[in-house]
Design brief:
The complex is a heterodimer of chains A (about 120) and B (about 120). Chain A has strands at about 5, 10-15, 20, 25, 35-40, 45-50, 55-60, 65-70, 75-80, 85-95, 100-110, 110-115. By secondary structure, chain A is mostly beta strands. In chain A, the strands form three sheets. In chain A, strands 2, 5, 6, 10, 11 and 12 form a six-stranded mixed β-sheet that branches. Chain A has a four-stranded antiparallel β-sheet with strand order 3-9-8-7, with no helix packed on it. The N and C termini of chain A lie far apart (about 40 Å). Chain B is an all-beta fold. Helices cover about 0% and strands about 55% of the residues of chain B. The model of chain B has no long low-confidence stretch (mean pLDDT about 90). Classes of the chains: A mainly beta (about 120), B mainly beta (about 120).
Chain lengths: ~120, ~120
């Protein structure tokens, strides 16, 4: 079964410092990977995705993620954190059916709470 | 960009009553919508996939008669929590995929509904 793991429940970083939110995946075939951000009592906002092509994906709000096939990772990064980046971040992978084709479903990780201190 | 409107954002209801949550795609047609449930500090749990003009597909363990889903048009899906009980209190989020959209792309999420059953 397809899955993603976010090993850290919370990441603390000082404003201005670089941040990394980790995600590893387990899928059959080529993965379709996504990052979403959720602010309190709100839905999810799309940050970026990896489908194919360059391993470094640039997304919204200055975030980027690096697809690393050998490490089966898709870590979210930002060179300089802002207090306003504090939120819950979810990594997701598109599910695959029994015959290996992509389905409509997204499988989410457990989420990582990012806390940026001023 | 694509926008999904979810209403209401908050609802408090008495135990035993039913509550309807609406999910509308405002500027695109959505053949497929998804309903998620999120417990505090936890990930999103997919409840069901709603397909326009056909019956919803429920995930294992989700009671069909408890959580009624209707997707009567390409822009509207509704989730009705029937005979609500306090354990149904949760944050419910919908998402939609645009009709004809390349399967690789992400999904648009509603802003969520906080249901409290008293």
């Amino acid at each position: 079964a397809q899955s993603v793991a976010q090993p850290e429940d919370q990441v603390n970083v000082a404003e201005g410092n670089p941040l990394t939110v980790k995600c590893t995946y387990s899928v059959s075939g080529n993965p379709y990977l996504f990052w979403y951000v959720q602010y309190p009592n709100r839905g999810l906002q799309f940050l970026l995705k990896y489908i194919t092509g360059d391993n470094l994906v640039k997304g919204s709000y200055g975030f980027e993620a690096e697809f690393n096939k050998s490490h089966t990772s898709f870590h979210l990064k930002k060179p300089s954190a802002l207090v306003s980046d504090s939120a819950l971040y979810f990594c997701a992978v598109r599910d695959r059916g029994s015959y290996g084709g992509a389905t409509n479903k997204l499988i989410f990780g457990t989420g990582t709470l990012l806390a940026v201190q001023p | 960009g694509a926008v999904v409107s979810q209403h209401p954002s908050r609802v408090i209801c008495k135990s035993g009553t039913s509550v309807k949550i609406e999910c509308r795609s405002l500027d695109f047609q959505a053949t497929t919508m998804f309903w998620y449930r999120q417990f505090p500090k936890q990930s999103l749990m997919l409840m069901a996939t709603s397909n326009e003009g056909s019956k919803a597909t429920y995930e294992q363990g989700v009671e069909k008669d408890k959580f009624l889903i209707n997707h009567a048009s390409l822009t509207l899906s509704t989730l009705t929590v029937t005979s609500a009980h306090p354990e149904d209190s949760s944050f419910y989020i919908c998402s939609a995929r645009e009709a004809g959209e390349v399967a690789n792309y992400g999904y648009t999420f509603g802003s969520g509904t906080r249901l409290t059953v008293v």
